[in-house]
Amino acid sequence: MENQDFNVTILVDQSPEVAFKAITDLRAWWSAAIEGTTDQLDGEFTYHYQDVHYCKMKLIELLPNQKVVWEVLDNYFKFTADKTEWIGSKPTFMLAQKGNQTEITFLHEGLVPQEECFEICKEAWTNYITSSLYHLITTGKGEPNAKEADSFDAKLVEKWKLA
Description:
This protein is an alpha+beta fold. It has helices at residues 16-23, 118-139, 156-162; strands at residues 6-12, 35-36, 44-49, 53-63, 67-77, 90-98, 101-109. The longest helix has 22 residues, at 118-139. It is globular.
């Protein structure tokens, strides 16, 4: 059976070292609101976007210039009935030298078409990887979500899950 996990690949005119450094700098391409450690093995971090999406991840594999794997420890989507979607899934970046370029394949193991969030998440990941991360690697400037004016309270996640 064909792998249904979401994946997208980009090719950049930069070294694996440059690409790897950019991938682990999530605040520069995903969201300025990310809190925690994003570049050390066993580091944990949180992402949130308004009251629409919250997730807590752990960096479970870190092979310099080759691979980055996160595990989703907790997740909340306001727009899904199943409040456990993403939990246990593994967003993964694999890097490979291709001549003078670096191929980056992003695979979100566990994000499959059967998931309620698949289409929205597919669109979001595609934009973050093919636009924001790509631009960070190739120009030095990504397009992350801006940090919201008020601080995020992770305790609200429990309230949202009950709503």
